[in-house]
């Protein structure tokens, strides 16, 4: 049975001008219920005026067993996302459903794999959880992330990805594409689509060498 619990917002961190990472404090008694498989999501519930709104957001990380974090990007006309980005504050509480969803990957210590992750915009949110957990749990595995955005300013989790790269320099490859920002390399300019992926495969990636591919984006 799916259940909501009232969780307090521990902190809110800006990721871009339009997006925030929201970390909830999970009480000791509920920690077992909020264990998650990387790639799963949380449903948040709030009453705004006379309307009850529910929205699903992917879990991006859980830095310790007493916390769980999602990212929210404000969208035009989105009442819940605008509220979460502009009005929600640390110390406030929201109704949060226990983790749900079938997308994702559960890393295993004995597994050795070469993984490709493709993300566009806010699609990086579940990828961050999958990449971080895989590199931490599977010491023989490696991950290549291809991440598309309009510009560097609109890129979520840039620092978190840089921290992962510093921690796993030989096992994590980061490839950033920008569709509305000039790059020194034409290969790294433009949208992440089928044509661009073919170009990357021709010049930069051994696409056939990957054991598993994860895809998340607006049209994934």
From TrEMBL:
Stretches assigned to the FAD-binding FR-type domain: 2-106
Claim: Iron is one of the keywords in the record: yes
Signal sequence, start to end: none
Pfam families: FAD_binding_6, NAD_binding_1
Enzyme class at the top of the EC tree: oxidoreductase
Gene: hmp_3
GO MF terms, alphabetically ordered: 2 iron, 2 sulfur cluster binding; flavin adenine dinucleotide binding; metal ion binding; oxidoreductase activity
EC number: 1.17.1.-
Xref: SUPFAM superfamilies: Ferredoxin reductase-like, C-terminal NADP-linked domain, Riboflavin synthase domain-like
Record InterPro entries: Cbr1-like_FAD-bd_dom (IPR008333), FAD-bd_FR_type (IPR017927), Flavoprot_Pyr_Nucl_cyt_Rdtase (IPR001709), FNR_nucleotide-bd (IPR039261), MRET (IPR050415), OxRdtase_FAD/NAD-bd (IPR001433), Riboflavin_synthase-like_b-brl (IPR017938)
Cofactor(s) for this UniProt protein: FAD; [2Fe-2S] cluster
Protein's name according to its UniProt entry: 3-ketosteroid-9-alpha-hydroxylase reductase subunit
Keyword annotations of the record: 2Fe-2S, FAD, Flavoprotein, Iron, Iron-sulfur, Metal-binding, Oxidoreductase
């Amino acid at each position: 049975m799916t259940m909501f619990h009232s969780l307090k917002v521990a902190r809110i961190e800006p990721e871009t001008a339009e997006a925030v990472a929201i970390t909830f404090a999970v009480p000791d008694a509920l920690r077992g219920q909020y264990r998650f498989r990387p790639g799963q999501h949380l449903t948040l519930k709030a009453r705004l005026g006379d309307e009850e709104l529910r929205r699903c957001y992917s879990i991006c990380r859980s830095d310790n067993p007493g916390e769980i974090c999602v990212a929210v990007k404000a969208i035009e006309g989105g009442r819940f996302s605008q509220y979460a980005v502009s009005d929600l504050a640390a110390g406030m509480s929201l109704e949060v459903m226990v983790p749900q969803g079938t997308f994702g990957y559960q890393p295993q210590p004995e597994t050795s794999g070469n993984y490709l992750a493709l993300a566009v915009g806010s699609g990086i949110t579940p990828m961050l959880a999958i990449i971080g957990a895989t590199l931490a749990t599977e010491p023989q595995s490696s991950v290549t992330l291809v991440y598309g955005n309009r510009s560097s300013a609109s890129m979520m989790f840039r620092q978190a990805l840089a921290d992962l790269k510093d921690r796993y320099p030989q096992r994590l490859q980061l490839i950033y594409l920008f569709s509305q920002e000039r790059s020194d390399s034409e290969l790294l300019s433009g949208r992440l689509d089928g044509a661009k992926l073919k170009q990357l495969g021709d010049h930069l990636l051994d696409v056939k060498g990957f054991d598993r591919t994860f895809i998340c984006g607006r049209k994934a």
